[in-house]
Amino acid sequence: MHLFKPNTIIIKISLLFLCLNSYTFSYSQDIITKINGEKIKAKVELIEKDEIKYKRYNHLDGPSYIMEKNNINKIVFENGIIKSFGNDISDIDIKIEETKELIINTINKHGFERNSFKEKYKASFEGDYLKLIVLDKKGIAKSKEGILYDFSNVYKFHNVSERSDKKAFVNVWVSMLADKASNTWQKHKLIMRVDGIPEAYSILKALKQYNKLLLTKN
């Protein structure tokens, strides 16, 4: 005859209850996967046209956070439903080339060095790197080398800084090639003076789109 020990039964029931609770806890959360692969455990509160609002799952009583949709790859909701945000890119290479052309045309028409409207930027690309050359008031390049920027490695996009109807600034923290010989890149704040507020927003939007495309490609 086998005798059941009460303490053993209680321990087994407690462990079973703990396992069930752990499973429920781990599943009842939304998972936001960013373009760069980072995953955030969250509770999504609101999805709007260009951004989402969420709370961090380990701090539901804390503040709400805002994230732009162009930084998100997908969201896996607690009920298992998956919402993807990057599936509208059918041919990544074509999209990249179209965006490059838009960036070149817009910067070459409206982009200037930060300190003056007398020195324009001339934009081009070396591979996927954005190259900016400063032109003097006669349209002559001050340096043939220019500066290369890697928009697959953006630290932060700032909002457009509006100064007047005919002046605004685009500010982006991005990797810049500091030394070509050693292939050394460093964090740099690109500040671009733009001769119009709508044009500044167009440049910023194109750069954000280009960043998203490069991250999706890689």
TrEMBL record:
> What is the name listed in the Swiss-Prot or TrEMBL entry for this protein?
Uncharacterized protein
State the source organism's domain of life. Bacteria
The record lists the organism as Aureibaculum marinum
